[in-house]
Specification:
Blueprint (H helix, E strand, L loop, with lengths): L7 E2 L9 H9 L19 H17 L6 E6 L2 H13 L5 E6 L2 H10 L4 E7 L22 E5 L1 E2 L4 E2 L11 E4 L16 E5 L10 E6 L16 H6 L9 H16 L2 H22 L4 E2 L10 E5 L3 H13 L2 E2 L10 E4 L6 H18 L1
Parallel strand pairs: 1-13, 3-4, 3-5, 5-8, 8-9
Antiparallel strand pairs: 2-10, 6-7, 9-10, 11-12, 12-14
Helix pairs in contact: 1-6, 2-6, 3-4, 6-7, 7-9
The structure holds 4'-deoxy-4'-aminopyridoxal-5'-phosphate (PMP).
4'-deoxy-4'-aminopyridoxal-5'-phosphate binds next to helix 3.
């Protein structure tokens, strides 16, 4: 199979990467820029690798406009390990934290945090099967919490926060695993942002953490060394061997992103792509969107046909037609198209055409 035989891959993560990035990585696979080695084979302390690392980190800092008050760190363990790292590092101040529960991953994060302090639910969308994002006025914060936690994009339910919550000076912690690098941000508003790499950034195996440095260094005494943000800051993410190849791939993705107009360019493109699919859903009596309109995600489009049987038929026929990974997550059911940065508009247009055809033949 050549690269031209690639399918339209709507996976929620690990997700597709830009084809040109994969081709560049392939071209450099056995001999990175005359070094005579693959990036996979390099010492992480070698100058050639340090240059890759520094350039990647500097580009991420520039593209996300990370202020000097904040530090970028690269950690292993995916986003899930951050569910533990966050409370271990910053709940110590008041032993309290407040969580917005708007889906599976914020629920898991909250349950993990309960091991380390007193956790309250600031707001929840569980009453309507996580089909919406609560409003600012629904958020209950006392003001003495060590942090307030939310998940900016709910990958499974297809909802996305359209605003940054105001938290009475309580540090804001945000899981941006499925929408980082898709919308410009004022990073100075956040205490901690973290994101698993495998959707909008790179292959799996890493979480990017952006932390206000003043929050680090106050971890609970039993925090594993590798989960200490301060240790990671002091060692520039190299206390031990970092996920070298994933960081290199992130570097290639960032250069690609720059050519698309950076985060600002990506924001325009993602709004257009999401609209193409939401228009099909909104114009149809056959498809039903799972999320409330005002809370719909631009990354994960969740929808259903009139029956579970037709959902299953849809999945089967998409595979035959050159698409994949359109089945909804097992906890939510239905269908889901994940359209992160690397999904080209062409792929979305092709899926919209398929959806219209499928509706014609099955309604
Ligand atoms: N948070 C969100 C929003 C996610 O979508 C996911 C996984 N898809 C996770 C956390 C967990 O990520 P990981 O598998 O990297 O631990």
């Amino acid at each position: 199979m050549s690269s031209t035989d690639r399918i339209h891959n709507f996976s929620s993560g690990p997700s597709m990467l830009p084809l040109s990035v994969l081709e560049e990585a392939a071209a450099e696979m056995t001999n990175y820029q005359g070094s005579g080695m693959s990036v996979m084979e390099m010492s992480h302390r070698s100058q050639v690798y340090i240059d890759i690392f520094n350039e990647t980190k500097a580009n991420l800092k520039r593209m996300l406009k990370v202020p000097d008050t904040h530090e970028i760190i690269f950690m292993q363990g995916g986003a899930t390990l951050q569910f533990s790292a966050v409370p271990l590092n910053i709940i110590g101040r008041t032993k309290k934290a407040s969580y917005a529960v708007t889906g599976n991953f914020s629920d898991l994060a909250m349950k993990e945090a309960k091991k380390y302090g007193e956790i309250t639910v600031a707001c929840s969308s569980e009453d309507k099967n996580h089909s919406y994002i609560p409003q600012q006025s629904d958020i209950k914060i006392e003001g003495d919490e060590s942090y307030f936690y939310y998940c900016a994009n709910n990958t499974i339910y297809g909802t996305e926060w359209k605003y940054v919550p105001m938290t009475k000076d309580v540090p804001l912690v945000c899981d941006m695993s499925s929408n980082i690098l898709t919308v410009p941000l004022d990073i100075s508003k956040f205490g901690i942002i973290f994101a698993g790499a495998q959707k909008n950034m790179a292959p799996a195996g890493m979480a990017v953490v952006i932390i206000d440095k003043s929050l680090a260094g106050k971890e609970l005494p039993f925090t594993p060394k590798l989960l200490s943000y301060q240790v990671m800051i002091d060692s520039d993410s190299m206390h031990n061997t970092p996920p070298c190849y994933t960081i290199y791939m992130l570097g290639l993705v960032l250069k690609w992103l720059e050519k698309q107009g950076g985060v600002e360019g990506m924001e325009k493109i993602k709004i257009e792509k999401a609209k193409i699919l939401y228009d099909v859903i909104d114009e149809s009596e056959f498809y039903r969107g799972c999320a409330e309109t005002a809370s719909r995600s631009d990354m994960n489009i969740t929808f259903r046909t009139p029956s579970e049987e037709l959902d299953a038929k849809f999945v089967k026929e998409t595979v035959k037609a050159g698409f994949d990974n359109l089945k909804g997550h097992r906890v939510a059911g239905g269908l889901r198209a994940s359209i992160y940065n690397a999904m080209p508009t062409d792929g979305v247009v092709a899926l919209a055409a398929f959806m219209r055809d499928f509706e014609q033949t099955n309604r």
